[in-house]
Specification:
The complex is a heterodimer. By secondary structure, chain A is mainly α. Chain A has one domain. Chain A contains 7 helices and no strands. Chain B is mainly α. Chain B has a domain of 41 residues. Classes of the chains: A mainly alpha, B mainly alpha. Chains A and B meet through helix 1, helix 2, helix 3 and helix 7 of A and helix 1 of B.
């Protein structure tokens, strides 16, 4: 099978229908292993047991940006190649990305209170992630507000690509400005500064949450394809009803 | 397993994550059932796709 075959929604539905049970099982297994490793990880010498919040917070923070990057790639697919599944992919990813961003903010606050003495601080990292969350909500509102999917797709794609400018700001905010948030400690020049006792559970949880995203995203894309089929059939039904009324019908005459 | 004096923060973080994930899964599952039901209702009312294939046939 060629990759271009996936451009066909019917083939996509068929392939993902077979794939999803395996993905769901792999997600559950990896997350369970990750939760076990997180529960049995030692306490940090400074942070104590609150370091366990990191195993939830960091994967969600990574995914909040990763999902927007996926949506940006899909936006290019919509604007440049007009791939039939590109807008479906972007629209299906938005609520999932918003959920991960919400979790990153909530767990970050819950981690910040015992470590920084505050739930919230208007510093560069926290504020830029809050802006990302608001952009997710704005995009979701845009898709709902514009009834014609093709018009909504183009507007959402442009907004997504503009919003992608926020990703490097989030990533490098801890380097560019003085913030309460710690600088990068996993993906950095010179290697991770995290001890293996924390790094391994963190990476396993990150793989688990990424698998969760892929699984939920494919399932949500299937729903979106079905939603568009419903809309197409409803429009066919409306056209059939209008033609039955005939041209002489007062309802079909312009005002 | 003891989480020390900040147990409530740790437990709330994990519960929040579990709740959001469960809500996401439930929303996607319910949406799937809703779209399938709407497609079935439309096909039962006599509307069919131009290809002639059933819209609900999505193995």
């Amino acid at each position: 099978m060629k990759l271009s075959d996936l451009a066909n929604p019917t083939r996509f539905l068929s392939l993902t229908g077979r794939l999803l049970p395996y993905l769901a099982a792999a997600t559950a297994i990896v997350l369970l292993i990750g939760l076990y490793l997180s529960a049995t990880a030692p306490d940090d010498y400074q942070q104590g047991a609150t370091v366990k919040i990191m195993f939830i917070h960091v994967p969600n923070a990574w995914l909040s940006m990763f999902v927007w990057a996926v949506m940006s790639a899909a936006a290019l697919g919509t604007l440049v190649w007009r791939h039939p599944l590109a807008d479906v992919a972007a629209k299906a990813a938005a609520p999932i990305g918003a959920s991960f961003t919400f979790l990153a903010l909530v767990t970050g606050s819950l981690w910040g209170r015992p470590m920084w003495g505050t739930y919230w601080e208007w510093d560069a990292r926290l504020t830029s992630v809050l802006i990302l969350f608001l952009m997710y909500l704005g995009l979701m509102a845009l898709w709902r507000a514009v009834e014609d999917p093709s018009r909504a797709a183009r507007a959402a794609a442009v907004l997504t690509l503009v919003g992608a400018l926020n990703l490097p700001i989030i990533k490098f905010s801890v380097d560019w400005w003085n913030t309460l948030h710690q600088p990068a400690s996993v993906f950095r020049m010179g290697g991770s500064t995290l001890d293996r006792a924390f790094l391994i559970p963190l990476l396993v949880m990150a793989v688990g949450f990424t698998l969760l995203f892929v699984t939920l995203h494919l399932a949500a894309m299937r729903n979106e394809i079905l939603r568009r089929r419903v809309r197409a059939l409803q429009m066919m039904q409306a056209r059939a009803s209008a033609s039955e009324l005939g041209p002489a019908s007062p309802a079909s005459q312009p005002a | 397993m003891s989480f020390g004096p900040y147990a409530s923060f740790i437990v709330t973080s994990y519960l929040a994550a579990a709740l959001v994930v469960v809500l996401l899964i439930a929303w996607i599952a319910l949406d799937y059932r809703s779209q399938k039901r709407r497609l079935r209702e439309l096909e039962d009312s006599g509307v069919s796709r131009r290809s002639g294939r059933s819209a609900t046939d999505i193995k």
